[in-house]
Specification:
Blueprint lengths: L3 E8 L5 E7 L4 E3 L2 E2 L10 H26 L2
Antiparallel strand pairs: 1-2, 2-3, 3-4
Keywords: Membrane, Transmembrane, Transmembrane helix
Length: 72
């Protein structure tokens, strides 16, 4: 059994208590059960495209903001 160090505890609305902890190896636990943190999240194609478009659109906005700041 891992030595789990309690980081946070909260009493929920339904009267149960939820506890968050970390063991000596850095693994995360909720109510003494390990959380799965090693699985990759796979997004849909349109979500990936929207993220890419937003990132590309942010570059000229950042450049414009910097130029506006220095041209005051």
């Amino acid at each position: 059994m891992a030595n789990i160090h309690q980081v946070w505890s909260q009493e929920l609305d339904n009267g149960t208590t939820g506890t968050f902890g970390i063991d000596d190896g850095g693994r995360v636990y909720w109510n003494g059960n390990p959380l799965v943190t090693e699985e990759r999240v796979k997004l849909q194609g349109w979500v990936n495209a929207a993220i890419f478009i937003a990132a590309v659109a942010a570059v000229p906005q950042a450049i414009f903001a910097v130029l506006t700041y220095y041209n005051k």
